[in-house]
UniProtKB/TrEMBL annotation:
Residues 289-299 have a biased composition (Low complexity). Pfam families: Tektin. Residues 289-308 are annotated as: Disordered. This is Tektin. GO terms for biological process: cilium assembly; cilium movement involved in cell motility. It comes from Anopheles albimanus (New world malaria mosquito).
Amino acid sequence: MEQISGPPAKSGTIFYQTPRSHPWRPTMGYEAVEVTPLHEQPITNQLVASSYSPSIMCSDPVTFPNLVTGFERNPQHAARSALYTRYTPNEWTTSNVSTYADADKNRNYSEKVRSEAVRLMRETDEKTSQGQRDAARRLGERITDITFWRNELTTELEKLIAESAQLTDSKRNVQKSLQDLEPPLHIAQECLYHRESRKGIELVHDHVEKSLLVEVDNLRSCQEKLSQLLAKITRQLADCRAAQHSLEDDISHKESALGIDSICHQLNNYSRGINYYGGIEKYDPTVSTPGTWSGSSSTRINNSHSERSKSCQLRSDADSLINAVATSVWDCWSNTNNAFNNRASEMLEAKSKMQLHLHKTQQEIFDVEKHIELLRKAINDKSNPMKVAHTRLEARAHRPGIEMCRDNAHLRLVEEVCTIQDSIATLHRKLQEAEAQHQQLLRTKSQLESNLKQKVDALFIDREKCMGLRRSFPVNNTIKY
């Protein structure tokens, strides 16, 4: 609130001089109103007649003396008053001439004022019309500018919405690819778990296991890359949505401004709804200039274009990464399957050789058993000759006297007994060796059978369990291979 005019307003010990006479009057929203005083009316006897006097007054109303009434009261005073209140003829004539001159002067001045007023009215009408036409032209230019930027913003908004839709499709493809990597990873881990159940020497760190570990590492690496790309796409979609909101907000504001300016452009002197708004020309609600206004829209369009470029690059990266992941996963899958096939062939060959050796070992065990029986029979066959020799020696020990001669027969019998004993000892050693070898052959047979069973189990794990899971590539058409 601002003081309009009047004496300075005192606030504490400080005086403030204001150009307004009324300190309570606000600056805006009010118009100056000229107060016209009433016409002066002389007080006459009629205004103080008895009919206008209050009923409680007990005295007569006051009357002013004139020439007639004064003569009745005081003739001298009335004569003196008449003498002093009368004019001379010269004065009367001079007054008339002066009145005529004043009337001519006033008429001339009035005619001049009227001519100047007509000229001023024509000038103000022309100036007002010209200003109204210029304002309408400027409004038309403003409408053209707003329409241009609105169309530019609308076109950019449509492109941004289409790009966001394509980026959303790419996001779905990345999510689908990320989900499609779960089955191969699960299968590879299952294969590793199944192969852990191998026994003995078959629990080997072979090329199949290396391929499975490489495949698991590759799948996890691909999942990490796809997850990072998915996070980037999510952030980019949020940025695109922010740019879209900015464009939509600017378009909405321009639509409102375009409607207001169109209505203003169509207003004329005979339109309905026009009115006075005191002090509106002093109110400045603007927050921008034409440069900053167009610069704001241009900045939003450039920001949207930048987001569209980033989105397009992300879509290209997503397609490239999906194809690279598909190729990498398929290569690891194929390498692992080939390793499984090669390992199965090696185990089949080893199994065949193991079965051949087992058959030969069984045949050798059979031959050794027969040989042991022959050795035992040979040892048993030496008993009778030993008995004969012992009997002969025992019988010859009963010869009488000098007949107990160490003759050749006695020497030969002793030699025969020693020879038979040596033969029996040699046969026993051979029998022990044969029995030991028989036990070794049995252990070999058991080992071969155990190894054969382990190979059969390992072959079953690789061919039936693992390759049964890996017969088909568990990825649909999202990943092209």
